[in-house]
Amino acid sequence: MEKSLTRDPGFWIMVSIGLALMILGPILIDMFTIMQITQYVVLSVFALSLAYIWGFGGILSFGQAAFFGLGAYTFAVSSIGMGDTTVPLLLSFAVPAAFGVALGYFMFYGKLSDVYLGVVTMVVTLIFWKLANHTAGPEYSIAGVRLGGFNGIPSIPTINIPGQPDAWLDPAQLFRFFMAVLVIVYVALRILIASDFGRISIGIRENEVRASLLGYDIRRHKVIVFAIGSGIAGLSGAMWATYQSFIDPNAFSMEMSAKALIWVMAGGVGTLLGPILGVIGLQWLTLQMGMVDFLNSLVVLGAIMMVLVLALPKGLVPTFKSLAVAGWTLWRRGRGVGGRVKKVASDD
Amino acid sequence: MDYAIVVALEMVRAVAWLVLLAAGLAIIFGMMRVINFAHGEFLMLGGYTVVVSTGAGVNEWVAILLLAPLVVGLFGVVVERLVIRQLYGRMLDSLLATWGLSMLMIGGVTLIFGNTVQGVATPFGGVRIGTYQMPIYNFVLIFFAAAILLAVWAVLKFTRAGLIARATMQNPNMAETLGIRTTLVYMATFGIGSAVTGLAGGLLAPVTGVVPAMGASLVGQSFITVITGGAAVITGTLSSATILGTISQGTTFWAGPVYGDAALLVVALILLRILPQGITGRIFKRAL
Predict the structure, then answer these.
(1) What is the per-residue pLDDT across A25-56, written as a single tens digit (0 to 9) for each?
(2) Is residue A310 one of the residues assigned to a domain?
(3) Of A110, A118, A297, the CB nearest to B273
């Protein structure tokens, strides 16, 4: 992070690609494909939430789905209850973030170790999943909206223009809106990571003891990072709910948490681009694998996860980066230039 | 009066249940500081071993007490050799890898046996306590929970293998210097922990029925019990199972099983806020 954000070409390239896709996508690509891509956009926001807290805050959460589901249910209940989707969308960020603060307080002020943290986040997700499955009866309703147990909540409204509950977005507009959310989340996270706050989180990730000896309150810091990640995950849950117009307790499932972890691992921990590529690659792969009869998605996900941990611990983007650098220097050396330069450059 | 006896027995049963669920995991965690995220699927494997072997005509008790621990224990040794061993010192990676294993196992078993509940007949009938009926099998569970803890304690305390295990637990480097092959100790630990888990899975099979995804409903309780207990295998498991078991069973009586689970988590969170290393991290520090 030595470079300032405005001078990083990668940042501008990413933002331009995002904006170009947002504006030109619905014009150039047919509607069915656009609706497919919308799904990737939503899941990319979800992936970014974990990419941020894990890669730039050093918090490995095994329960990102808890916040995803919480956001989805918050949106479903409040949008059906209110009829308008603007406030529910904000709530779907605020409620999971508030829950993230509460859970984070217990975990980080208790100074739980990494393993305990993983277990607690996982168990919280399991409990949410069980509770959500348990809410089948009519007595479980919030503001007249039945939670529906394992059947879930149907007919969740599409996003509408603020203040006009009848002006629903059509699929192209929905895609543009979601792309805008993705770009905003990406830009906001990049700014946050480049800010003083972000530098401190990275410092904490690198060495907690050193950071606390330098006078930073690592507990408070981690709670904030965790809450931001929770809020973003909740927002993506709301996007998922309105995209599918339906939500069931599987939003809280372990599979959802695992997918987020796999996207980030595959793309590379400590990058924001990687996890987005991870979403695209792995969702596409699951789609292809789904057509093979004798495999089910759990086998595929589990196998990918084990292979990633055992064979590619750094993830695809960093691995390719170092391979590319190695290949480049090798090629230059082969041509007899820059052999010496490399030696100096490799000191960093 | 009868009701009080039933409630008390149910609480003891809840404690025994947690001990059974957590014992194998606690052995592995206490020794290697590795949490096996595929623990629920090891239980499931134990259950399926019983289902398949009783289906093939093996006596139910032979299946539960002999085959289930054997199969799951051997499976554990293989897993340790192929996966866990590669990840020593990379604790979080071992969590990720075992979670991958867990999904692989759920998916694999679903492919082989299908996603249906397979039952095993519950041995023995019931016993009458006043106007209430209670399955005798509950007492079997309580007996085996106590037996497992006693056996682990006796092995650790009185045998040479236990001595080596305790040495490795306290200071692996020193143990290695004194000529103990710690890698072998770890392999054995993982195998034994898995075998105990398999036994537990076999014992629970008649109560819960067996489905590929049954692990998901059991691991929560196992994990909470182990991390609330802390690193000491016996004291930790017993103390946290007692606290959590009575509270969750009490809540279950009062509000229903799902809230019992939620209460378990809330109590565990509060306990961990006060005692971040688990109960045995501060109290009973030198205990086994």
Answers:
(1) 888 888 888 888 898 999 999 999 999 999 99
(2) no
(3) A110
